[in-house]
Write a structure and sequence with these properties.
The protein is α/β, with parallel strands linked by helices. The protein has helices spanning 23-37, 80-84, 156-165, 169-182; strands at 43-46, 67-71, 89-91, 93-95, 100-103, 118-121, 141-143.
Length: 187
């Protein structure tokens, strides 16, 4: 919220990173989209970088979800007490029993293993994690930056379907996990 640069940045192809003329239009679109899909009593994981200016943190109070959990990002630089007014909990990462590790910044590939198979993250805007020398995204990463999810939160079950049941992804994730364990990588 409140990051005016988001309306000025351009992608490598010269098009705007985000399709908004003003930061007010940007923020109001995110708030409206959020409140259309998130129930008032929902648990919501927010993967960081919630506000550029301290005064914009208060906009989180306009968002549905009685149990918001902040996975802190590199721009969440203000005292924890400022975020605690709007978030039930603040963490660096969060791991789900399903094998998903949520973080703001994508984790290093050596952390994959038994404990988690997929990293749901933000931070990289319109980009995807791609192994060096490869042109295809690494299936162990799922980016939920606003640019990837149409400025609208995704229900956790929908994320799990995307990461575990899309095509042959589940089989490929199992194979990558096995390889990581054989190399004694990860947990």
């Amino acid at each position: 919220m409140g990051d005016e640069d988001m309306c000025k940045l351009v992608k490598a192809d010269g098009h705007p990173l985000r399709p908004f003329s003003t930061i007010e239009e940007h923020d109001e679109t995110i708030i409206a989209n959020w409140n259309k899909v998130v129930p008032k009593d929902a648990r919501v994981y927010v993967l960081g970088d919630v506000a550029q200016k301290k005064s914009d943190i208060a906009k989180i109070g306009r968002l549905n979800g009685s149990r918001k959990i902040l996975i802190a990002g590199n721009h969440d630089i203000y005292p924890t007490s400022e975020y605690a007014k709007y978030f039930k909990d603040i963490r660096g990462t969060h791991r789900l029993e399903s094998g998903i590790l949520m973080s703001h910044i994508p984790v290093h590939p050596s952390t994959f293993g038994k404990a988690h198979k997929v990293n749901v993250h933000g931070h990289i805007h319109d980009k995807r994690v791609t192994p060096a020398g490869d042109r295809y995204p690494d299936i162990r990463y799922f980016c939920v930056s606003c640019e990837h999810i149409n400025y609208t939160p995704m229900e956790l079950g929908a994320v799990e379907i995307e990461v575990f049941h899309f095509g042959n992804r589940a089989k490929a994730l199992d194979e990558l996990t096995k390889q990581s364990q054989e190399l004694k990588m990860g947990y």
